[in-house]
Amino acid sequence: MLYSVELATRHMLTLETKPLSLPDAFRILCAHIADMRLPNPDNYGNGWRDLEITLPPALKTSLARPSSQELQFEVYGATVSVAHLIHALVTFSYDTSAVAWDLYRHLVEDQAVRKVLEGLVMLDGGDGDVRTAWARPVEGTWAQVAGALVEEADVRRVLCAWARDWFDGLLVPFMTKGGGKSAATLPHEASDRLREQLLARDGPITVVGSIVDRTYLTYPPTIDPSDYRAAGALSPAHIIPLAAATDARLRSSIQVFAGGAISASELTRKRINDARNSLLLTQDQSDGLGDFIFSIEAEEDKANAETRYFLRVYTMLTGPSLNGCRDREELWFADIEEAAQTPSPDARFCNLHTAVAKVVHASGAGAAIAAIISEERTASLQDAAATVEIWGHGGWEYLQRELRCLAEGAVEDI
């Protein structure tokens, strides 16, 4: 889903007293709380990568700078700004209205916060449905409303809890190793079957980066060298992580984040481990997909019954398999009839992954998730060391038993 509702910062002053939709209202409030003056990166010439080039240092650092000590939380020494995370969620979610409604619902469920909101914000219209109502300040400007809200301890408490729920329930499972980013965690038979389906659809060259599967390199060559840039080992990688099939919290978060566009029945192991949710990639590309270095954004042309796919790149350092790839570069997957009935990636799955990527980058939460990954890797190494130590002793004991049995002529008892 391409970004369609932008709160243009340069026009913010004209919006200070106007009625706004819930997503826009939360967006302008968080922008004031976090002291943000950032335009939408999708409007840059080179997209999100321009954010690293064109923004002055003060604005770059503001992406991850907490607005107050009580509107932040820490994860293994990394700090996440609650205002920046909420702003990103109500700006870049797959369905911003659904996420904004979820935030509003959590706020008014707390009686103390509800009383504060009723004194500061008025809802008009919507025919009884608050999700389609317009919000406006009871008096003064949105900047004054933001200032009053952030002074309330109960409001800060609910905002922090809501943001932390999204961080733990959606963002972390998408990036951590427990998220099942690759089909490598599947039984070999299932992974091999999916790989064959993707080869039938896309051929032996990655749609992203034009890397050829080295098993297809023969002499004399059957593939034109001009069709690819390098060779590698290609394997399936999931767009929506496999953990969504088993992690109830992640599955629930995805459903709210997508506003009902993706049902629970589509988040089963069988549906996730499908060509509609898979790409054929090299290992470093698979890591890049899971770490939100890049994503694939889809545009559905319903009039012509076709879907167009575009590469989205979020960082300047992309790794060798993405060198030369351009942000918004169009990608082509094989037509169903021409690909042994193997379907192209589901546009909703692609756009869900892209929306999560934008939230991670816009909020500055990626550093905290990287700290979690680093901690998990350290713990994994410690577990491995303990395992080696245990098996080392076990091997020594086994050797002693074997020598004793040999000495006693009882080899058959080993």
What is the helix content? 40-55%
> Strand content of the residues, in percent?
5-15%
Give the biggest sheet.
3 strands, antiparallel
Helix and strand element order = HHHEEHHHEEHHHEEEHHEHEEEHH
Total of helices: 14
The largest sheet has its strands arranged as 9-10-11
Roughly how many Å is the radius of gyration? 25 Å
Number of domains: 3
Mean pLDDT: 80
Shape: elongated
> Would you identify the regions where 5 or more consecutive residues have pLDDT less than 50?
1-11, 53-67, 387-395, 410-414
The SS-based structural class is: alpha+beta
Number of strands: 11
Measured distance between first and last alpha carbons:
64 Å
Protein name: HNH nuclease domain-containing protein
Question: What does this protein structure show overall?
Answer:
The protein has 414 residues and is α+β, with helices and mostly antiparallel strands. It has three domains: 9-175, no CATH class; 180-361, no CATH class; 367-413. The chain is 45% helix and 12% strand. The protein contains 14 helices and eleven strands. It has helices at 22-33, 51-54, 57-62, 82-92, 96-109, 111-120, 142-150, 153-175, 188-202, 248-257, 269-272, 283-290, 347-363, 366-408, and strands spanning 72-75, 78-81, 121-124, 134-137, 211-213, 230-232, 235-238, 278-281, 294-301, 306-313, 330-331. The strands form five sheets. It has a three-stranded antiparallel sheet. A two-stranded antiparallel sheet has the order 1-2. Strands 3-4 form a two-stranded antiparallel sheet. A hairpin with a 2-residue loop joins strand 1 and strand 2 (78-81). Helix 4 (82-92) packs across helix 8. The longest helix has 43 residues, at 366-408. The protein starts with 21 loop residues before the first helix and ends in a 6-residue tail after the last helix. Residues 1-11, 53-67, 387-395 and 410-414 have low confidence and may be disordered.
